[in-house]
Structure formats: structure tokens, C-alpha cells
Amino acid sequence: MSVADLAVKVFNGLFLSGLNAATSQNEINNKRINIIVSVCNTSNSIFPKVMQHMVINIPDDKDTNIIQHLDSGTQFINDAHTSGNPVLVHCEQGISRNVTLVVAYLMKYLLNGKLVDELLDMIRKMRSQAKCVWGNSVPNSSFYAQLDLYEDMGMVLDPISEPYKIDNLGKDPESVKAGNLELDPNETLICYN
């Protein structure tokens, strides 16, 4: 297994990785991971058996509205993490989508008061110490902007808040004005037990 295939601990019981580590039975067993959060387009059938598995089925591109998944994703991680279960959050490359979700989780539940940039630096340092080839991970520019917006909203998605209306993430202005936030059925959150 190469260094890029490892799950890296960013906080006690919280790991980040790409798809290779998430689908490695050895890596899951070695880290005693019980819960996986997949933030990518993937099939559940390729993963090792774990207690719970959440899938947030979204692509890594500038048009993806990841903010709509941050409340439920961070809540899922928090529920697992606070019950003492090691959690692995991954996307395909381990660079953008999973980092976005973990930064939102850290801001909201563990390191209140830390800013997006501080948390990204912390994650980069952890990965650098593990000598990961993807140590310079960073959310894509749209996800980064959505993390800033999430922070401005107090880490709670509020589609009728002024910051959300101003940013509006490319939505129809009337829909944003009314506070309508519709989940794309192709991005459904799925939990497996």
C-alpha cells in the first residue's frame, strides 16, 4: 500500500482519505474504523462492512451545492464521533469534498471559533506529517466559498438568511428570496446499517 492509500487521522477518531483507503479492508481494520462517510459518486458494494455508511452523492465541481449537505453530514459525523466510533470521511482523491465536510464538522462541533483557513492549515499539517502526497489538499474554490458562507451563517444552513440570499449559489433569485432549498434527488443522503 502506498502512502497515498492511507487514512490520515486529523483528530482523535476522525480520519480523512481518498477512495483507495476507504475501500481497503486492511486500512479499515488497522484504524478500527466503524463508520464511513463517502462524499462522492460511488457504489456501496465496493466498501468493507462497517457499522454505518453515509453516502453524499455529489461531484467535485464548481456547480455543486455542497452546503445543503453540511448540516446533515456534520450531524452524522458528530453522532458517530461522540459515541466513540472512529469515522472515516473520504471522497475520490481525498482532496476537496471530504475536506470541506470535515472542516464544517470541526468548525461546528469540535473547534468552535476556529476559522476556515486555520482548520485547512491544521489538516494540511496533519497530512504533511503523514507524508501524504495529497498533503496540500484544499476544497475547490466553490466549496471554499460555501464553507465561508456556512461560517457566516453560524454553521447552520439558513436559506432565508441574508448571507445565503446574497450568495445564492446560482439559484433562481425568486427561489432564494422565498427561502426554498430543494435537494437534488440524485444527491440523496443514504445511510446503511
From TrEMBL:
| Keyword match Ribosomal protein | no
Task: Identify the residues that the record assigns to the Tyrosine-protein phosphatase domain, covering every copy.
Answer: 6-156
- Which SMART domains does the protein's record reference? DSPc (SM00195), PTPc_motif (SM00404)
Please list the GO terms describing molecular function: protein tyrosine phosphatase activity; protein tyrosine/serine/threonine phosphatase activity
Q: Which InterPro entries match?
A: Dual-sp_phosphatase_cat-dom, Prot-tyrosine_phosphatase-like, Tyr_Pase_cat, Tyr_Pase_dom, TYR_PHOSPHATASE_DUAL_dom
- The question of whether Membrane is a record keyword is answered with no
Enzyme Commission code(s) on record: 3.1.3.48
Could you list this entry's UniProt keywords, alphabetically sorted: Hydrolase, Protein phosphatase
- Cite the Tyrosine specific protein phosphatases domain residue spans from the record: 64-127
| Superkingdom to which the source organism belongs | Eukaryota
Question: PANTHER family, alphabetically?
Answer: DUAL SPECIFICITY PROTEIN PHOSPHATASE 12, DUAL SPECIFICITY PROTEIN PHOSPHATASE 12 FAMILY MEMBER
Q: Which family does it belong to?
A: Belongs to the protein-tyrosine phosphatase family. Non-receptor class dual specificity subfamily.
The identity of this protein, by name, is: protein-tyrosine-phosphatase
Question: What taxonomic ancestry is recorded?
Answer: Eukaryota, Fungi, Fungi incertae sedis, Mucoromycota, Mucoromycotina
